[in-house]
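User: Just a sanity check before I run the rest of the batch. Below are the structure tokens for the first item. I only need the designed sequence back.
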């Protein structure tokens, strides 16, 4: 039986291959979530701080939806999983479910690494302006659901850098330990960078966006070959901040690996 995405990394012994398989699966999730978000226009009132007045809450309608969603998800144990990182981590309720025995794959200090504020900023200021059309169709709840799906998928992929760093460290501790002890972030970043692999990832996600987002018709009506999103946007997304931010997480993780 084929392993699921979570099973591939939920083993006591992880390998570079199992991590790579999970990253490839996560590409599918990201591409599909971006295609879904592109169905809706920008719907700017959703993010406007002055649009809705919510008693007891200071923020936009979208921020309210995300915080309430994360509270509910926390109650049912989402953030007990070390692969998940909340966007509003303060004052989250504890899980009401019996604790799941997640294997201790990561070094414990890594739990404090959360760069979701950067992911949030880049999503709204860099990605949405090129992904969706301007306009307002009033579908704020559906739009917010799609936004949250995108954000959580991107967050999981980027923070997966912790697992990437762990498996690379285990395979060659003699290469990493001197740099970690010297706190040499630049040298660690250089050691973690494989340009040929990054180029392959960019080509793969662009092709996935082209295939997954292609219009399908049973008869010739002029839609063949059209895509629901521009595949180059997905490639650029990975090039400009998914892969760079993943390496930021990797470096942060390694700097604490010997703590």
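Assistant: Here's the designed sequence for the first item:
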């Amino acid at each position: 039986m084929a392993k699921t995405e979570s099973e591939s990394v939920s083993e006591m012994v992880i390998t570079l291959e199992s991590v790579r398989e999970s990253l490839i699966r996560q590409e599918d999730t990201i591409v599909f979530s971006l295609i879904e978000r592109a169905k809706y226009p920008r719907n700017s009132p959703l993010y406007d701080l002055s649009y809705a007045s919510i008693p007891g809450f200071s923020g936009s309608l979208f921020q309210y939806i995300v915080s309430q969603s994360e509270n509910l998800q926390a109650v049912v144990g989402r953030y007990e999983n070390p692969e998940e990182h909340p966007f509003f981590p303060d004052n989250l309720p504890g899980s009401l479910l019996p604790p799941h025995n997640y294997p201790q794959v990561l070094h414990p200090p890594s739990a404090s690494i959360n760069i979701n504020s950067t992911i949030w900023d880049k999503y709204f200021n860099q990605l949405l302006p090129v992904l969706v059309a301007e306009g307002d169709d009033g579908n704020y709840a559906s739009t917010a659901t799609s936004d949250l799906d995108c954000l959580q998928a991107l967050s999981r992929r980027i923070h997966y850098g912790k697992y990437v760093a762990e498996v690379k460290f285990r395979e060659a501790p003699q290469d990493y330990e001197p740099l970690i002890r010297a706190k040499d972030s630049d040298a660690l970043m250089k050691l973690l960078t494989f340009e040929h692999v990054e180029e392959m990832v960019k080509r793969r996600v662009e092709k996935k966006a082209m295939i997954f987002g292609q219009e399908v018709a049973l008869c010739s009506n002029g839609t063949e070959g059209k895509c629901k999103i521009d595949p180059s946007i997905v490639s650029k997304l990975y090039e400009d901040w998914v892969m760079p931010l993943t390496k930021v997480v990797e470096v942060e993780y390694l700097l604490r690996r010997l703590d």
